[in-house]
Amino acid sequence: MDDLINLIAKKASGKRNNRYLDVFLDFVPDIVSALKEIKILSNKGYISSCYRELRSLIERFLYVLLDGYMEYNSFLYGKRKVLLPLLNINSLWRNQATNVKSNKRQLKNLNDLFRDNILKLQCEEKYKNKMKETLLKNMSVEMYVALGGRSSGKPCEESVPCLNIKDIKRGIKEIANLANNSNPCREALIDKLKKKWWRKKNGEFPFPTTNFVLGLMRKILDNNLNKEDLNKKIRHILGRIQSFYTSLRFYLANFTKDFNH
After folding, report:
1. Do 29 and 143 share a domain, yes or no?
2. 156-180 pLDDT tens trace
3. Assessment of whether the complete model's pTM goes beyond 0.70
4. What's the rounded Cα separation, in Å, for the pair 220 and 239?
5. Which spans in the chain are helix H?
6. Which of 64, 167, 177, 232 has the fewest Cβ atoms nearer than 10 Å?
7. What is the domain count for the chain?
8. In a domain, 213, yes or no
9. Is residue 217 part of a domain?
């Protein structure tokens, strides 16, 4: 974690309006506080509590990265405050999204963001993959909801964050501008998105699981591996965090199961 913090701080320090810097610096005190708490728990021998704190810290840290990235790419950046829900995810939203009986959306992996749009298009896989890579590299708040959000003609629910239709339409326009005109998937994708949001008032944010965020951040950095060695180092560390986070989930799931019995 220390290595990743240092690398991202180094990456951010030399750029004006950096996509990570604002929200990342605000989160540093939380990181320091959490690491101190983990050290105290470790010294007392509370290993299971350490793992839970580590898992929570990793989740919050990754959401900070995603929040900063999408806010920077947003049309609204610098024009008015972008209120993203990722920095303070409420438990009701998480619980509704992970409930199999709920109609709320959650993204378990990168393909979930494109499952109802690009993946359903009748065109060659190479064109679909090219479009996905382009959109992921430039993912904004508006595009995120336009692609993966749940459309609604009703007012927003208090527990589930949403985006108004004006901003979602702006996201569709961004997607149209980013997609190469020569890509045969382009027009079909735009038509599909316009139909999805026709006469809707707003769109609910899809809930991003930690696995989705890890995959997205690694994919974003992977797009520039040949250009910047620092991206490669960050991506490598994110891979290590992903492996560690997976082991934490496995341990805590078994621990909880044994404890309950």
Report:
1. no
2. 888 888 899 999 999 999 999 998 7
3. yes
4. 13
5. 2-13, 21-43, 47-73, 91-98, 110-114, 125-137, 141-148, 165-178, 186-196, 210-222, 229-260
6. 177
7. 2
8. no
9. no
Q: What are residue 150's DSSP bridge partners? A: 204
Query: Position 169: which residue type?
Result: K
| DSSP characters over 31-46 | HHHHHHHHHHHHHTT-
Which pair of tokens denotes residue 107?
């993204």
Across the beta sheet with 150-152, the strand order is 150-152, 202-204, 162-164
pLDDT band at 31 (very low <50, low <70, confident <90, very high): confident
Q: 215 lies in a domain?
A: no
Query: What range does the domain containing 18 cover?
Result: 2-79+225-260
Do residues 246 and 142 both lie within one domain? Answer: no
Please report, to the nearest 10 degrees, the dihedral formed by the alpha carbons of residues 178, 182, 187, 190 taken in order: -10
Structure tokens at 204: 């609910």
Of 39, 40, 32, 47, nearest to 2 by C-alpha is 32
Dihedrals φ, ψ of 164, to 5°? -75, 160
Task: Please state at what angle helix 229-260 crosses helix 2-13, rounded to 10 degrees.
Answer: 140
